[in-house]
C-alpha cells in the first residue's frame, strides 16, 4: 500500500473498515475504486472536491444546521467517495428492512386499533401512551389498504464483527431520499466508468414506485387522475431543498398548509382557476402541525379539518398521523417478541441491545453497567430542556450519581443502549488530496409501501462523521454524507418516471392549476428581478457621475433625487458622500434599499419556486446570491464596484432571458411578467419625473443610460440628447421595451387574458391611462415643463401601485370562493 496515500489512515482493530480487510488489502468490491484512486495525482483528486462543490453550489443543495451562522444557505456536505456494498450483503439488509416495515405497520395498526398488544401484556402502555408521538385523534382510523406506514427510514451501523445493527427508525416523515438522489447524480458524474463497471443499481425505479404506489392507495374513481401534493412546512425547514427537489422529481406540486383547504369533506388545492381536489398528501411536516383543530392548536402551518378528511377516507396521508410513536427507542427491546407474535418469524435485523428504564429490572441492570452504555431520552423534550445522550464511559463518580438520580426520578423517560464502535469508511483529505482519512460511517436505508408489499431503495444515504472518534452521526452536528453503491449482479436498466400515457382529457396548457401561493411568488419574483436590474443600472450611472465630483450641477442633483426616491441615497447627498453610500448600497446586504439586500430577496423568492425554475435558471440565481456579502462595503473601491455592477447587469439580463425564452406563456409566466412590467413602470415614471425637474437646459443623457436606451437613441439621432426625442423614445415608442407605452400595452394584454380565463378582474384604469398616453402631443407635451405629462406620469405611477394591490387581493388572498371548484 502506498505509504503517502495511507499515512493518516491508522489501523483500528476495534472498528470494521469498509474498504480494507484485516490484511490491509482492499476488499473485492472496493478494489476497482482503490485502484482508480491510486492512479490519480494529488491535483486530480483535489479536482474531485472542486467538482462536488461546484455541483452542490450550482444546484443550490443546502441543509440548515440550527444555530449555524450560514443558516439555510449552508451547503450540503458530501465526500466524493461512495460507500460500496456488495449485492449478496445487500440482500440481507433488504430483507431485514422489509420485515421491519411490515412489523411497524402491524404495530401501528394495533396501537390505533384494537390495542391487543396492551391487553395481552406484549407491550407496556407507558412508553407508547406517554409518548408525544402517540396521537389520540388518529385512533380508529383505518387507512386505505391497511397501510399506516408508507415510507420508512432505518439507520444502520456496522459493528467490529461486520454485523449490521439498527440504531434508529424514522417513521414520521423520513428525510434523506432527495439528498441520496442528489449524491447519486454527483458521484455518477465523478466516476462514470466505475459506475458502469461495478453495475451499480439505479434509484429511479424506487422513486417511480413511490409515486405510483401513493396514487394506487389514494381514494379515487377508476378513471380519475390522482392529484398528489408534497406538503412542506416551508423554506425555513432544514431540509426544504429536499422537499422542493423531490416535488420536482416526482412531479408533485409543492404546497404549504395555506395552499390547501377543507371543503365538503375533501381536501382542495387553491389554484388560480379555483379549488382542485387533492387525493393524496406526501407530508414532510411533523404530526403536531398538520391540523390545528385536532392536533397543535397554535400551528399556522397545517390544514384545519385535515384529520376529519383522513378519518373519512377521502384523502391519503403518507405517513399516517401518529406514526412517529415508533421512533421512540424504548420499543427496541420489545421488537423481537412483537415480530414473533405479529409476523410469526424471528427478527432478521437485530437492534442494538436496549433497556427501557420504565421496567424496574431493566433500569437496575442498565444502571449497574453504566460505563458500557449510552443513556437517551425516550420522549422528546421541549427546546431548552433537551436531554443529550449521556455516555457512561465519560462520567466520573459524581456524574454517574447525577445520572442515576435523574433516571430514577422519571424512569419511563429514559432508555439505555449498548455502545457500538461503528465502522469506518475512507474519505479523501480535502486539503492534501492524495491522502485517505478514516471516518465513522452509518447507513440510512429507505423502504416504501406498494400494493404488493414493501420495496427498499437499492442504495441510501451514508452519513459520515467529521472527526475520527465521533460516536453519534448527525447532519445537525456537522457531519457529512456519501452516496451508497449497491454492486448489482446485472446491469441496472434505466427507468422513466413518466406516468401512464397521457390522453386528450389530460392535456394541460393554461397553467390555471397553479397554486395561488406559487403564482404570488412568481409575481414577486418578477418584481424583485426587475427591481434589482433597475437598481444596478441606476447605481452604475450614479457612481460614474458621483466620481466626477460634479455635485453642484443640476444633472447630479436630479440623479441624486432619484436615488433618494428609490431608497438608495439619503436626501441632499453631495457627490463625495454619495460614492460611499452608493458602494454601500451595492455591497451591504443590511442596506434596506440597496441592491445587495434586494438580490437576497430575489434569491429567497426564487428558493420558494425551486421546483418551477429550470436548472440553468437556478444556477444563475444561486451564483448571483453567492456574490452577496463576499466583501465588506468599506473595503471596496469605486472601480471594483463598477465592475461588479457590470456583472450584475449581465446576470439580470440572463435571468430576463430565461423568462422570455425558457417559460411557456401560461398564467404563471403572465404573473411573473405582470410583476416585471409594474416594477418597470413605477421606476421609469419616477426616473422621468425626476429628470424633467432639470428643465429644458438639463442634459437627459443620464436618463437614457438608466433606462438602457442610450444606444437606441444615438443610433437614431446621432446627436446630443434632445428632450422631445428622449421623451418620445421613453414614453410613446411602443417598440422600446423600456418605454412607458410598451409597459401599459403589455399590462392591458395580460389583464385581458387573465380576465377571459379566470374572470372577476375589476377595472384597473390601465386601459384609460394607456389611451391617454397615446393622445399626448409630442410638440406640446414632450418637454420638461409639460404639466399634462407630469400629471399623466404621476397618475400612472399611482395606478400601477393600485394594480399591484388589486392583483394581490384578487388572486393571492385565498378568499373563500365556493363557486370555483374543479373536479
Automatic annotation (TrEMBL):
<dbReference type="InterPro" id="IPR007296">
    <property type="entry name" value="DUF403"/>
</dbReference>
<dbReference type="Pfam" id="PF04168">
    <property type="entry name" value="Alpha-E"/>
</dbReference>
<dbReference type="InterPro" id="IPR051680">
    <property type="entry name" value="ATP-dep_Glu-Cys_Ligase-2"/>
</dbReference>
<feature type="domain" description="DUF403">
    <location>
        <begin position="514"/>
        <end position="812"/>
    </location>
</feature>
<dbReference type="Pfam" id="PF14403">
    <property type="entry name" value="CP_ATPgrasp_2"/>
</dbReference>
<dbReference type="InterPro" id="IPR025841">
    <property type="entry name" value="CP_ATPgrasp_2"/>
</dbReference>
<protein>
    <submittedName>
        <fullName>Circularly permuted type 2 ATP-grasp protein</fullName>
    </submittedName>
</protein>
<feature type="domain" description="Circularly permuted ATP-grasp type 2">
    <location>
        <begin position="82"/>
        <end position="465"/>
    </location>
</feature>
